[in-house]
Amino acid sequence: MPGASCFGPAYEYAMILDTNLRKRKIRDRVPMTFVTSEPYIGHLGLGGVGDSKGLLESELRQRHIKWITNAKTTRVEDGKMFVEEVDDQGNVVKAHELEFKFNMMLPAFKRVDAVANVEGLCNPRGFVIVDEHQRSPKYPNIYSAGVCIAIPPVEPTPVPTGAPKTGYMIESIVTAIAHNIRDELAGKEPTHKGTWAAICLADMGDTGAAFVAIPQIPPRNVTWAKEGKWVHLAKIAFEKYFIRKMKKGTSEPLYEKVVLKALGIERLKD
């Protein structure tokens, strides 16, 4: 089960599958291997969040899920996956031939040609280059948010491992853009910047892990990671809450803003 660009969901898929198999009492018939480009388990494309390394390694061990890090998938055939494991210098140290009956792969995000082909708008990978106000340096009338923006990796890794774009981080970016467009319409220069705070609830089927990183890219003001069954319940509750507030057309209710601010989590920088 390789994770390539969206590391949180990759861990979730593996552990939720493990939980489901155990509930059906057939886990003993299904060996599992987690394959990732990360230099270590729990890197998450963020250089780790708190003790995410120890926390996620412990979960994988308890669930008897093997793992291969610093991995490159070279090809996939019917029932077989071929993976190269590299050292810290990027040299191949082991070639793996993994047989499977079920496989899930999260490939690296792909460019959109219609956007990537605009001269000066994107980096070589096709992601939109933005300044601190989320605006294109070359085309000031273009703002960009979400997965399509260019974010440099938090640190060099033997196998390219990009930084993820998490939900609350994107909400922070969109909030900054909305305020900046309003300022431009009023004849002012954009001044608002998103905090790029990351809040992640990773569901593991019967338990879960919660991560908070402010900002998402280190060095950080806040780094926090916890594990427990409460995260699984919180994820279910949050899903229902989020859908409800979107249906009501309120992206940030006052009570949510107050609670998050009390925890030191805000969408915009002061």
Structure description:
This protein is of the alpha/beta class and 270 residues long. It has 6 helices and 9 strands, in the order E-H-E-H-E-E-E-E-H-H-E-E-E-H-H. It has a 3-stranded parallel sheet with strand order 1-2-3. A 3-stranded antiparallel sheet has the order 4-5-6, with no helix packed on it. The longest helix has 20 residues, at 229-248. The radius of gyration is 20 Å and the shape is globular.
What is the structure about, briefly put?
The chain has helices at 7-23, 52-62, 113-116, 167-185, 229-248, 254-262; strands at residues 2-3, 32-36, 65-68, 71-77, 80-86, 92-99, 198-203, 208-214, 222-227. It is an alpha/beta fold and 270 residues long.
Which helices and strands appear, and what pairs or packs with what?
Elements: E1 2-3, H1 7-23, E2 32-36, H2 52-62, E3 65-68, E4 71-77, E5 80-86, E6 92-99, H3 113-116, H4 167-185, E7 198-203, E8 208-214, E9 222-227, H5 229-248, H6 254-262
Parallel strand pairs: 1-2, 2-3
Antiparallel strand pairs: 4-5, 5-6, 7-8, 8-9
